From TrEMBL:
Gene3D superfamilies: Flavocytochrome C3, Chain A. It is found in: Periplasm. Transmembrane segments: none annotated. GO terms for cellular component: periplasmic space. Keywords: Electron transport, Heme, Iron, Metal-binding, Periplasm, Signal, Transport. PANTHER family: PERIPLASMIC NITRATE REDUCTASE, ELECTRON TRANSFER SUBUNIT (PTHR38604). The keyword Transport applies. Its main location: periplasm. It comes from Pseudoxanthomonas wuyuanensis. Pfam families: NapB (PF03892). InterPro entries: Multihaem_cyt_sf, NapB. This is Periplasmic nitrate reductase, electron transfer subunit.
Length: 187
């Protein structure tokens, strides 16, 4: 029989293929069990609540607040606007200050500007409001106008109300004062 070695080779190959298949089947089913045994992370459940700790974990999309992409999270409650008349420190000198009072119903349109009722220089004393600074009267050529500059007319373009919202992403921003005091040799 000239084909005997061939038959042996075919037989061996078949046995080997069977072994590989068996090993694959065993390994595959094992890892399936492992995956099932891992408890689902708490926030992976549907309707997961937002938690500040989720901001510390590395995420692909921080806006999803840790909810996996294949699940729908429940949105956090709307931030509450603070009305405490407490000014917040500015992060840098030319930052538009945040508004320390609510602005609900304050109309700003072509005909009237409710903000300027209190924040115009002429009315500031009556309402005990800080008048808008001189930059608000300057046009783009740095010329001073008698009335508020059209560039500064729509206040909420730059000024926002203060809310109790938590930051969505962590920030390592340091203002200039903390940078200077961190320098060796500074008093
Ligand atoms: C009824 C009067 C009044 C109106 C109307 C008003 N404000 Fe004020 N605003 C104040 C007073 C008073 C303060 C000083 C802090 C306080 O008492 O809340 C102030 C403070 C501010 C500050 C903080 C300034 C700083 O130096 O930190 C900003 C910014 C501001 N207002 C923006 C606005 C904007 C924008 C509007 C319109 C959407 C507006 N205000 C409408 C009275 C008013
Ligand atoms: C284009 C952006 C921009 C717009 C629009 C704008 N502001 Fe400002 N505002 C600023 C910046 C920047 C500052 C801080 C630097 C400065 O005083 O120029 C500021 C400062 C202020 C301050 C504090 C002034 C001080 O002396 O501390 C008040 C009050 C204010 N703005 C009110 C208003 C009101 C009211 C309006 C709408 C009529 C308005 N702003 C529109 C950018 C803007």
């Amino acid at each position: 029989m000239r084909s005997k070695p061939l038959l042996v080779a075919v037989g061996l190959t078949a046995v080997l293929m069977g072994l590989v298949f068996f090993a694959g089947w065993l390994f595959g089913s094992r890892s399936g069990e492992d995956a099932a045994a891992v408890p689902a992370p708490p926030r992976a459940s549907a309707g997961a609540q937002w938690h500040p700790d989720s901001l510390l974990e590395p995420q692909i999309d921080a806006i999803r607040r840790g909810v996996p992409v294949d699940q729908e999270g429940s949105p956090p409650p709307l931030a509450r606007v603070e009305n405490a008349d407490l000014k917040r420190v500015r992060a840098y000198p030319m930052q538009p200050p945040t508004i320390p009072h609510t602005i609900d119903g304050y109309q700003v349109d072509k005909n009237s500007n409710r903000c300027m009722l209190c924040h115009a220089r002429a009315n500031a004393a009556t309402f005990q409001a800080p008048p808008v600074s001189v930059t608000h009267y300057m046009d783009r050529d740095d010329q001073f106008l008698a009335t508020i500059s059209p560039r500064r007319y729509f206040c909420s373009q730059c000024h926002v109300v203060q809310t109790d919202a938590q930051p969505l992403v962590a920030s390592g921003f340091q203002d200039i004062d903390s940078l200077i005091s961190a320098q060796p040799g500074s008093e």
